[in-house]
Amino acid sequence: MQRYFTITQLTQEFDVTTRTLRFYEAQGLVTPTRRGRQRLYTPGDRTRIKLILRGKRLGFSLNEIKEMIEMYGSSPGESGQLRLLLDKIAARRSELAEKQRDIELTLLELDEVEAGAMVRMSELAGRTRAEEA
Amino acid sequence: MQRYFTITQLTQEFDVTTRTLRFYEAQGLVTPTRRGRQRLYTPGDRTRIKLILRGKRLGFSLNEIKEMIEMYGSSPGESGQLRLLLDKIAARRSELAEKQRDIELTLLELDEVEAGAMVRMSELAGRTRAEEA
DNA sequence: AGATGAGTTGACTTTAACGTAAAAACACTG
DNA sequence: CAGTGTTTTTACGTTAAAGTCAACTCATCT
Fold first, then answer.
1. In chain A, which residues have their Cβ closer than 8 Å to the Cβ of B57?
2. Which are the contacts of A67, defined by CB distance < 8 A and separation ≥ 6?
3. Residue B120 and residue B131: Cα distance in Å, rounded?
4. Distance (Å, rounded) from C-alpha A55 to C-alpha A50?
5. Is B54 within 8 Å of A102 when comparing Cβ atoms?
6. A120 vs B59: CB contact, 8 Å cut-off?
7. How far apart are the CA of B57 and the nearest CA of chain A, in angstroms?
8. Nucleotide lying nearest to A63, CA to C1' measure
C-alpha cells in the first residue's frame, strides 16, 4: 500500500512526459506535495491527473478542465454561488450531451463507409475468382 | 432553392470567422469553387464544414478530421488499400467508444456534484426558515 | 466620381500545450 | 568519492489553429 507516487511512475502509467505533469502543476491543476524539492503525488493527485486526461480526450481545454475540477472540490456556503454551480453543471451536461450526439452521428457515418468498403471488397473477391477460372 | 453559399452566410450560420473558413481551405479541408476571386460554397462544401466542426467538438485535430473526411470520399480499388481503410474505421470506432465511456463517467460525476449541491441548498433553506421563526 | 460594403491576399501576431536543452541538486552504487 | 541516474529549475523553441491588420479588388448605390 503505497502512499505516494513519483513523477516518473505517473508518466509511465499515463504515458505523458514529466514536462506535461509539471506544466499541469504550473497551471494549478495538480499540487503535489514535496519532500525537499521532489514532487510526491498522492492517490488524490493521481485521480486528478486521470480527470485531466479524460477531459483532454473529450476536447476540453486545460482551463475548462480546471473549472470542472474546481467544481468537484467546491462546497459554496452561499446560495448565489450554489446557483452558479448548478448552472455550470447544467451547461457542462448539455455540452456532453451534444458530444454524445456528435459521436452517434459519426459512428453512423462510419457504418456507411464500412458498408461501402465491404461491397467493394466482395466485388474484388468476385473478380479474383473469375480471373482464376 | 439556393445553389451556392457565400462565405459570410456560412460564417453566420456556423458562427466562425472568414479567417477560419479560409484556413480550412488552405489546409485542404474544403475546396469551394470560384466566381472570379470570390468563393462559392456548394451544399456539399457546407456539409463538409459541418463535419469539420463536429470533429472539432469531439477534440479531433484538423489533420485527423481531414483523414476522416477523405475516408468518406474514398473508394479504393485495391484490396490492400481496402484493408487499410477498414482498419482506420475500426480505430476511429474504438476512439469514439472511449470518448463515449469518458462522457458517461463525467456525467455520473456531475450527478454527484449536483447531488451535493442540492443537499447544501436544502440546508440553507432550512436555516433560513429557522431564522425566520 | 465618390463612397460603401463584401470579399481577397499576405504578412505578422497570438494562445495553448507542450518539447527541448542546459545546468544544478540529490540519492545510490560500486 | 567518482560515477550514474533521477529530479528539479530556468529558459527558449515549436506546433496547431486561428486572430489581427493592411492593402487591394470588385460590384453597387448615390
1. 59, 98-99, 102
2. A88
3. 17
4. 9
5. yes
6. no
7. 7
8. C16
Give the predicted TM-score (pTM) of the model.
0.92
Q: How far apart are CA B117 and CA B34, in angstroms?
A: 55
Q: Find residue B35's DSSP bridge partners.
A: B38
A116 touches chain B (CB under 8 A): yes
What integer pLDDT is reported at residue A1 of this predicted model? 54
Helix (H, G, I), strand (E, B) or coil at A41: strand
Q: What is the DSSP letter of A32?
A: -
Contacting residues of A for B52, CB less than 8 Å apart = none
Output the nine-digit C-alpha cell for A23: 506544466
CA closest to D19 C1', residue: B19
CA neighbor of A50 nearest in space, from A91, A19, A21? A21
C-alpha cell, A81: 454561488
CA-CA distance, A25 to A9, in Å (whole number)? 16
Nearest to B99 by CA among A80, A40, A119, A53: A53
User: Would you call A93 exposed, middle or buried from its count of C-beta atoms within 10 A (0-12, 13-18, 19+)?
Assistant: middle
| Residue closest to A29 by CA, chosen among A2, A75, A64, A57 | A64
Q: Which residue has the cell 469551394?
A: B32
Please give the average per-residue pLDDT across B66-88, as a whole number. 90
Task: Quick: pLDDT tens for A97-129.
Answer: 999 999 999 999 999 999 999 999 888 877 767
